[in-house]
Structure formats: C-alpha cells, structure tokens
Model the fold of this input.
Amino acid sequence: MQAIINILQAGVASGTVLLFATVGELFAERSGVLNLGVEGMMLIGAMSGYSVALATGNPWLGVLVAMLAAGLLSQIHAFIAITLQADQVVSGLALTFLGAGISLVLGEGLSKAGTVSLLPSASIPLLSQIPFLGSIFFKEQSYLVYIGYLFVPMAWYYINRTRPGMHLRAVGEYPAAADALGINVYRLRYLYVFIGGVLAGLAGATISLAVSPGWFSEMTTGGQGWIAVGLVIFAQWDPFRAAVGSYAFGALRRLILDIQGPTMLLGMRNPFYYNPYWGFFLQMLPYAFTIIVLVIGSREAVRKRLGAPAALGNPYIRGERGL
Amino acid sequence: MSETASSHPATRNRRFPFSLRLEPRMKEPPRWYPAAVSLGAIMVALVLGGILIAFAGGDPFRSYAHIAKASFGNLGVLSDTIVKATPILLTSLACSIAFRMKLWNIGAEGQFIMGAFGAGAIVLTPILPADTSPWIFIPVMMLAGILMGAIWGFFPGFLKARFNVNEIIGTLMMNYIAISWVNFFIFAVWTEGGFQMSPKFPENAWLPRLLDYAKTIPIFSGLTTHLGLLIGIVAAIVLWIVIYRSRWGYEIRLIGDNPRAAQYAGINITRNTVLVMMLSGALAGLGGMSEITGMVHRLQTTPLAAGYGFTGIIVAWLAKLNPLVAILVSILFGALLLAGREIQPSGVPKMIQGIILVCLIASDFLMRYRVRIVRAGEEA
Done:
C-alpha cells in the first residue's frame, strides 16, 4: 500500500510538469495558434532555470528566468505565425529545433556543474491527514505542485467565465467577428502564445529544479513537450481534462521507473526485476498511451461534435474572406 | 487603400524620410527569386548563429572556417561529407513526399532506425547465412529495410486516415517506440559481450565502398563513399518522376494544395494518406538500411539515432520539396554535421539547423509579399 502511495505521490509531482505545458499550449491553441515548439521551450526553461539557480543560489529566480526565456522564444513563433502568416506546423517544428539547439549550446557543461538548491516542498497541515488521498496530493509536495492545483480551476474559470476569456475563445473560433467587435486579434494571439511559452518554461523549470533535478541535455524533457501537445487534443481544450491526463501520465511515468526496483511484487517474484530487459517495453508505454489517448480523443470529438478551435492553425489576415 | 492604411505610414514619415510598405504579390516572381530568398535566409541564419556562438563563448569565424575546411578541404573529407549526406538525402526524400501532401511525417527518424533494424535482422537472426553472396544479401536487406520503414509509416498513416489521429504526434511517438524497440534487441538478444551493440556484420553484407576498388583505381584509397549514395540519387530521380510526371504524383500534389478540390475530383484521400505514409516510411527505412550496411556495419543506437530524420525535414523544406534539389542541399547539411562533431560547444550544428529553419520559414513571407520602400511624400 505504501508503495502505491509513493508512486502516486511522485506521479502527481511528475504530472505537474505535463500540466503546466499542456495548459500553456491549450491557451495558445484556444487563441487559434498551434505551437509545436513546446518541447523546445521546455528545454530552454529547464536549462535556463537550472543555470540561473546554479549561479545565484535562488531557485525561484531560476523559475522566473525560465518562464521569461521560454516566453521570449515563443515570440519567434508568434512573429512567424501571426505577423508573417507562415505555416504554423513548420514554424513550431523550427522552434523545437531552435530551442533544443540553443539550450544544448548554452547548457554545455551544466550537467557536471554541481548541485543547486531545489525548490522547497511542504505538507499542507490538515489536508495531508486525509487517509490515502492526503498523502498522495498534500504531503511533502513541491510548492509548484500546489500552484498547479490552484492553476487548473483558475484557468478554467478564466477561459469560460470571464470577459478576457471570452475574447480569447472568440479570437480562436471566429477571428473576423472578433475583429469586427474591436478585439485586437493579433495582439491577443501574441499574448496567448507568450503565455503558452511562459508556462512551457515553468514546466521545464519544474523538471530541472524539482521533479528530476539536473540538466541532462535533451533527455531532460525526453519528449514530454510532445506528449503535452497530444494531451491538449485528448483534453478537448479543457483545463480539467488536461489535468486528469497530465496526472495520469505522470503516474504512469513514475510507475515505469519504480516497478523495476522491488524484488517482490504483489506477493510474487517481480518479473520486471528479474527480466531487466522488459524495461525497454515499459519505456514505450507513455508514447504508446499517447497514441491511444489521441485515438480516444479524436473519436470522442467526432461523436460529440466537439473539436479544435475553428481557426486553429489558420493565420488571420484582415480583410480576407474566410474564417 | 483604405483610410487607416494610408494614414499610418504618413504619421511615421514625420520622423523618418522612408517607410516600408508591404504589397501582396500579384504576379509570379522571376525564376531566380526563390533561390535568392533561400540563400539570403541561410546567410541571415549564419550571422545569427555566429552571434549566438560568440555569446556562448566560442569564436564564430573559426567555427565556420572549420566547418568549410573539415568538410570540403580535400578528397578524403569530401568523401566523408558525402557519407554523412547519404542518410540525410534519403530521409529528406521521405519528408518531401509526405510534406507534398501536407502530411507532416516527423517520424523519419524512427522509420530510419526501423529500416536499419530490418536490415540488421537479416544478418543477426540470421535469416540468411553469413556466407551468402552479396548479390543476394544486399537486395534482401534493402527489401527488409524498406518493409520495416513502411510498416512504421503505416501505423500513423492508418490512424490518421481511419481515426483522424494527428500524424505529427503519432509519428513522433513512433520515434521513441522505435528506439526502445531496437535497444531491447541490442541489449537482450543480439548483444556483443554485454555491450550496447550487435556483433559486426560479415563483409559480404556491407555495401561496396570506393576504397574496395582502390587496387584498380588508386585515387579511391581510403574513400568510404558507399553504394548508398547511388541508391539515394536513384531514389531521388524516381521520386521526382513520380511527383512531377505521374498521375499519382499529380493526385498527391492536388491533395496537398487543395484537399477539397481533390475530393470533388474523386481522389481517394484516405487511401493516399496511408500509401504516402508507407512510401515515406519506406524511403526513410531504405536510408536506415543504407547507413547500417554502408557505414555502421552493426546494429547500435547511438550512430543510427543521430537525428538524420530531423535534419531531413529541414533539408526537404530548404529544397522546396524538390527531390533533385534535395541531393545538393543534403551535401551541404552533411558538411555541417560532419564538421560539427569537433566544434565546441557540441550543440552548435543542431542550433544552426534550428536557426536556418526559422529563417527559411520566415523568408517565405517574401514569396507572397513584396516590400517597397516609399519615400516621404511620394504617392504610392
């Protein structure tokens, strides 16, 4: 029982990474801009957060710089996709290459640079006493995990119940109408791409300063940015579903890491311990599940007639016919 | 011109005697124009890359001079450049055909690795005995590489066609799965003495190299350029004919440019999605086969999963999805990768690739708009 709690507890922390990245991408896509550069922005965030924390000794300063750096990087995509009206798929890919390349160059030697002071963690007084759930969600978690809990309902409320949130949806669904009502489509899209970048940077810093501390070049993120892009589709552009998906994937990630440790599993000899090569098949699981989750998400979208924001991926050109 | 459009530059003119005005292009630009724009984009990218190298504490001039010398300096390094360019050529062809249909196959990397796995399985299982004649060995390995690559392309293609699963994420996830799959076989089944690699292939399973003919043509001694180059060039020519001169190629281009028109014309988009993804995977798989039999000679993840699939995306884009242009561009990128091995910091080639792609996609803007410099007070 304790082992399961430990895995789920670590899974929530690990899922927080995906949560920030997924909700960030969700904001950008809700405004109509597809940004495939999440992986690159996360790498920039992880690298710059770690190196600033190393240089200054202050992890919170690291988080701040990580968010700003990734936010800045996202503006390259915003400029190409919004102002230059170029293909958003290729531009996002370019951003991933660019982010990975820059973080490799600037992060050279960082992996051997020594340890940094990590982000603090804490238990919530009463809530952590709740049996089972309390130990999973509220015991000895990083501050960022708690920020994640607050962030999801806030994001949902912002998108669905506030005026700026309504503008956000309008810009993503029907930019021409939003423009006619005096909403500045270009400015809002820049803003939400920036917010997406900031959150991807936060996700990166969550890895390198809290969940699995350190800088391991491209293995730091290991494709989590891409999983986040997939989760947005699974989430049907809804923050709560994004949270469910993120925590589930976080738990899966931990399970894969931890299941190979003990010699006994459920009273039997642990086959994963005695056949370490099975680990390679375990490693495939998050990626295979992403594909499965996408199949589920796409089918559901067809059934419920839900779907992507109508203008997703299309540049808005004032005065041109079409969406 | 509407009221707002003309008043805006006017307010700016008070401070600056010239202003920029963007006008949509109405006519086709001249033939030299796209190439000039791409070249300009690369120049800008190299300058930006140099600034970043300097920022990271390197010497940009020395880095670039090193790239030029270490990749084209003499016949030996030129041959090494071509060896590096061969896998890039095949993965860029894979991307070209898929992108032509606006199918974003980002999985050339995984398909490449699975192609190498398929070719390796022929030797390592072993399906053919080690003393088989190369005349049988090499065609069978080629088929195996093509088959495994096509299978790896089939899954995301089928999911896209049947369930509308986003192919970008599908193909990307398949990359990670491919690496784990090959790692399993390298560690658990075909390991050589517990190391992370298979035993070396017998020499009759190697693609012939120029140095094999050094006895009759002395200038070839030490040159490792292998038959994969020829395979790549033939594939490029065939693909060019398929895309520009065949009915199927016309269908693919039509779907890419205007899917609705293609549907009304009775073109089966579902079937073409699966077929193009399989062809794309097959080309990348052929690249993996060429790399493992021509260069690496054993199944090992590190030299195979070196990012050729991703470089192929950039090369395909730079070549404007034209297979013949891709031959030339892949040699340039082969040079970048070859010389990049020794440059510090080691991420530089990757970063420069990223900057080049960013500049290229940004420069597309100049294909659609013309920038005019308007003098203050001059009527447009």
Observations:
- The longest strand of chain A covers residues 121-122.
- The beta strands of chain A are 121-122, 141-142, 264-265, 268-269.
- The two ends of chain A are 54 Å apart (CA to CA).
